[in-house]
Amino acid sequence: PIRVTGRLDEDPNFECSDFNPVYGWLSDNSLAIDWLLGEDIPEAIPYSGEPVNVINMSLGAQTGECPFYLQEAIDKANAAGIAVVTAAGNFNDDASLYSPGNCDGVIAVGALTKEAERDEYSNYGQGVTVSAQGDMVPATIPEPYYGMTYYDANGTSIAAPLVTASIALAALDTGVIPDET
Fold first, then answer.
1. Rounded to 5°, angle at Cα 80 from 78 and 81
2. How far apart are CA 122 and CA 95, in angstroms?
3. Who's near 74: CB < 8 A, 6+ residues apart?
4. What would the DSSP string read from start to end of the chain?
5. Which of 63, 75, 80, 171 falls 20 to 30 Å from 179 in CA-CA distance?
6. In 3D, which of 128, 123, 99 has the Cα closest to residue 26?
7. What number of other Cβ atoms are within 10 A of residue 127's Cβ?
8. Residue 118 in contact with residue 112, Cβ under 8 Å?
9. Going residue by residue through the chain (181 aa), what tens digit of pLDDT does each one get?
10. Measured CA distances, 159 to 32, 91, 95, 153, 169 (Å)
């Protein structure tokens, strides 16, 4: 796993922790995809890990349309046989307005309640490929936070890793990587 968000150098008042929401740039996410594909990224140590077969991007920004640089990176990942799973967004809005979920070649994940209904905050529409539980999902915290070691997480950013893990496990078993269809 790699972490792309949480740029401390952009805002001197920003404090990043494992529990706080963080921000970053979609362009950094496109560079991260390129890096995982083995491309040289200035000021980055070359990727030397195992080849990946699925990428999770539990993030999003309202962009109207997919930025060209992000689409190019996703296209390269798809051409390499890598599934790209994204969060659809938590704005109770049309998912086609939020990147990277609105990029071609991604599996955009919406959030469901425990009762398998669309969660009230989950983005919706034809931009959502699949939905998974995103309400009250037990999540661990790497370091205790106010005495907690886990909490009940909510959001499409929580639903997307569940789909990502399912795809990765299925790929281990069958060798098949699904595309966005």
1. 65
2. 9
3. 30, 33, 66, 84, 100, 103, 104, 105, 106
4. -------GGG-TT----SSS-----HHHHHHHHHHHTT---TTSPPP-SPPPSEEEE---EE-SS--HHHHHHHHHHHHTT-EEEEE--SSSSBGGGEETTTSTTEEEEEEE-TTSSB-TTS-BSTT--EEEE-SSEEEEEEEEETTEEEEEE-SHHHHHHHHHHHHHHHHHHH-------
5. 63
6. 99
7. 21
8. yes
9. 677 775 544 555 545 444 445 567 888 889 999 999 999 888 888 888 888 899 999 988 899 899 999 999 999 999 999 999 999 999 999 999 999 999 999 999 999 999 999 999 999 999 999 999 888 877 766 666 667 677 778 889 899 999 999 999 988 888 777 665 4
10. 21, 15, 15, 10, 16
Q: What is the CA radius of gyration of the chain?
A: 16
